């Protein structure tokens, strides 16, 4: 038995393609789909009407993804446990490839690549893809990594016998969880054949607001997790001194990765890169706010 767990909030525009893709998998073994939802829109109605086979739990109040995933884990009976988001669609061989790699390796976590699932003409969506998923492009080689986001990752069930996602670190509770997993000696394996298609924000306002939020959360997480940039995030003086340079560094690193791994995006979607560049000013603004805001 395989368990697929999906957190959901106000997903009426994406939940039908997400669940349809999971129903139409090439995998022929037994698997269950668990949706943990706290929507205020038509998501519960759509799921009950069109996907009665999905195991469904609804919270009456808005619930963060970490809490929803923890609830789904408790509902599940499979091994491994597969995680995807309600704004993502899995490739037809998604489950099949995850199971294949789990059978090949005894790694604690296995995940894969992220493709842009929006209309390819939407430049703002490309900016979101460029800003968030340079480390998870399908052109990257299979390898051990430090982190894969929960929109496309799976875990051996034993991982959750003594641990769960910590909602306190939302919206990067997956980064914090994977850091703790690695500290305990666990392995996280990236395989580009394991693909999902992620829907991104399509308006400039949504994109810029999200970039500011991501910047703030990034600096707050770097105060806790000793990743690259942690020394800067822990010092207000270093942050102010580095602020003019950090967006340029992030831009240059992103450009290098895309030129090497996915060069056609650079040439086919220059407006997407321009919007991404503009978003970096909101990102650094959020980063500074996160540094100066005391941890709760």
Structure description:
It contains 12 helices and 9 strands. With 296 residues, it is an alpha/beta fold. The chain folds into 2 domains: 197 residues, Alpha-Beta Complex (Spore Coat Polysaccharide Biosynthesis Protein SpsA, Chain A), CATH 3.90.550; 89 residues, no CATH class. Strands 1, 2, 3, 4, 5, 6, 7, 8 and 9 form a 9-stranded mixed β-sheet that branches. Strand 1, helix 1 and strand 2 form a beta-alpha-beta unit. Helix 5 packs across helix 12, helix 7 packs across helix 12 and helix 10 runs antiparallel to helix 12. The mean pLDDT is 95.
Shape label: globular
The major beta sheet can be summarized as:
9 strands, mixed
Structural class: alpha/beta
Radius of gyration: 19 Å
Head-to-tail CA distance between termini? 40 Å
Low-pLDDT windows of residues:
none
The CATH superfamily label of the largest domain reads Spore Coat Polysaccharide Biosynthesis Protein SpsA, Chain A
Number of H/I helices: 12
Could you say what the CATH topology of the largest domain is called? Spore Coat Polysaccharide Biosynthesis Protein SpsA, Chain A
CATH architecture descriptor text of the largest domain: Alpha-Beta Complex
Helix fraction, binned, reads 40-55%
Rounded mean pLDDT score: 95
H and E string? EHEHEHEEHEHEEHEHHHHHH
Domains (count): 2
User: How many β strands by DSSP?
Assistant: 9
Q: What is the CATH top level name of the largest domain?
A: Alpha Beta
Q: How big a fraction of the residues is strand?
A: 15-25%
């Amino acid at each position: 038995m395989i368990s697929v767990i999906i957190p959901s909030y106000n997903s009426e525009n994406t939940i039908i393609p997400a669940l349809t893709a999971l129903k139409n998998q090439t995998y022929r073994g037994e698997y269950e789909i668990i949706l943990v939802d706290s929507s205020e829109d038509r998501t519960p109605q759509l799921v009950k009407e069109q996907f009665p086979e999905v195991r469904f739990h609804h919270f009456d109040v808005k619930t963060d993804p970490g809490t929803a995933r923890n609830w789904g884990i408790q509902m599940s009976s499979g091994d491994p446990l597969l995680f995807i988001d309600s704004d993502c669609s899995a490739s037809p061989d998604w489950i099949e490839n995850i199971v294949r790699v789990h059978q090949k390796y005894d790694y604690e976590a296995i995940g894969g690549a992220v493709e842009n699932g929006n209309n390819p003409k939407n430049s703002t969506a490309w900016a979101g893809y460029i800003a968030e998923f340079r480390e998870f492009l399908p052109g990257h080689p299979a390898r051990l990594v430090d982190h894969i986001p929960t929109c496309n990752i799976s875990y051996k069930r034993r991982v959750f016998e003594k641990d769960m996602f910590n909602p306190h670190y939302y919206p990067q509770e997956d980064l914090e969880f994977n850091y703790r997993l690695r500290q305990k000696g666990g392995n996280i394996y990236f395989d580009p054949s394991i693909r999902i298609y992620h829907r991104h924000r399509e308006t400039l306002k949504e994109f810029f607001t999200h970039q500011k939020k991501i910047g703030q959360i990034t600096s707050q997480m770097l105060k806790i997790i000793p990743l690259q940039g942690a020394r800067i995030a822990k010092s207000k003086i270093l942050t102010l001194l580095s602020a003019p340079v950090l967006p340029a560094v992030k831009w240059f690193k992103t450009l290098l990765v895309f030129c090497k791994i996915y060069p056609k995006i650079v040439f086919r979607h220059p407006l997407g890169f321009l919007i991404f560049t503009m978003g970096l000013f909101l990102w650094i603004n959020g980063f500074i706010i996160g540094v100066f805001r005391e941890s709760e």
